[in-house]
């Protein structure tokens, strides 16, 4: 290895100049990454520590370094900026708490259904479920706006059952507050009245997603389930028919088979889906932008939207960049978490593979996760590229 | 030149004016229609390539002027003294008249004449004060139609606070929680209690104009833009626009206006000021008025307009006592929060929502004043 690596440097033979050629070939890609990723990120990092107001280049001499002022304004200094940031984090947190598990479960169920050999018109269903994912979010939001207006289709259907629906996209009431009001609690108990983190009271942290945000949660599940269904489907199809047969021979019913065999074999894909979902839902922007962001009593604003709004409308570019950076760091941490969880599985896999001959000798499919893991991991890599 | 046109009528009219000016002076102007004006302006300024001339929205004006984005050219215009004082004041920052008002709108009271007649009301009943408004709104309220509707936001409710004699900012002090402002909101709440006022959201309408067009509200408070909207969507609705009734503190309305912004240090300053003079001349403004229904921003222009379009005379009359909505740098966030509070909590506790506004607005004002 080391000899061949040093080969070109010694300047002899057929591999001469290979390293230089290699650099030449990757230059366009590196150039693109530097121009469109590295420079903007470094510049945004600088802006988040500066008082740049959006006039001329952020590197012009009138721009001053203000230290952590922008970060302090949204995290520790009491005031409207902090409160807006806190509210947007609250909104987004509830959004994530609902969207990620629901979209994963629904995507998995859909994938299992369209993977069944007996299902007629599988192709049709696969396309139908995937369709919302290839449609632009903006188009879907506009359709949802019509469906969810006070006199829209959703409320018309509810009215048919004698239910008077809310004004979905404008209703700022948190659903947990609504439930609490249902049992007679309309004002915060003294314990929750105190200000919690980021200038938002504990009572408001616990409000749950507003009715308006719930509509967006439905929308997100509707649009992204199809994509994740596709990931699950690819993983499901790599599970060999012989494993199904073996499970059948061992006498497991469909439910037992799903939980004891299919689900463990889908683990790597499950991790991918959960992490992608987590990252995607922390970055939600399109829907909010189309709906105007400030509607529904500020309960649909998210950090991503707030960063945009602070920068463009209030010309506080430093503060906007600071919000974007907090979000960026948060998402990086989530990505590292995903890496860590996936890495954690590798020693286990090697250990199990070494055991495999015994298991195979014992009974076929007794521990199906053994063989599925490598193939599952392969699918996972494929789906990411 | 970057504009955000309300529709084809506006872009066509502006393009025609530019062509005419170009033919006269030999200059060429490229007209760009913005999808999202504020975003595109921000991008232009950040990239150091701002448009030579653009629509400057009133709510962003002070922020832009305060950050030194704008060239204070308006004082040097040949027709600088002809603009209406209220508009001149709106585009003055730090005692400098920055940019020429393009046109303006004020709020008026629209009355559905069919509903009016059906309720047995006559011309003598047209409300001139709050009592008259309450009486008319109550008479006009039927199971299908509410007497009065307008957006639940500062840009409408603020009018009532001003009519009660209140104001949000008095020099360097914020007076949002003054008794007058509370009285303004309490009056609106009294209309709600009487069942005579409902907000568009409660009428399943996107805005008051839609509720009016649908016949769900017999009176609304909107500006001249309602004319175009009703003509397009509800051509059968018959209505008149009158001046807003007076409150305890006299008459008041809001004036909204955009101005012709020129970026600071613009290399084309001479040419663009010439163009602004051309675009704000009385003939040209009246041509715009015919083209897309805006009201000229000059004294003589608006007077001529009131004669030519008597149905809109009430909007012109309003400019005499119109106030500018609060729009100093940083105020927007406080106002947005106030609107959110109104949406969440309603008007039942006027002192409470105004207290929050007081705190936020004072913080913003302190920051704006450094």
Automatic annotation (TrEMBL), chain A:
Topology with respect to the bilayer: Multi-pass membrane protein
Record bears the keyword Acyltransferase: no
Keyword terms: Cell membrane, Membrane, Transmembrane, Transmembrane helix, Transport
Location in or out of the cell: Cell membrane
GO cellular component terms listed in the entry, alphabetical order: plasma membrane
Keyword presence, Coiled coil: no
PROSITE patterns: ABC_TM1
Main location: membrane
GO biological process: transmembrane transport
Domain of life: Bacteria
Ranges in coiled-coil conformation: none
Region: Disordered, residue numbers: 350-385
Domain ABC transmembrane type-1 intervals: 89-338
Family: Belongs to the binding-protein-dependent transport system permease family.
Protein name according to UniProt: Sugar ABC transporter permease
Source organism (scientific name): Agromyces albus
Organism placement in taxonomy: Bacteria, Bacillati, Actinomycetota, Actinomycetes, Micrococcales
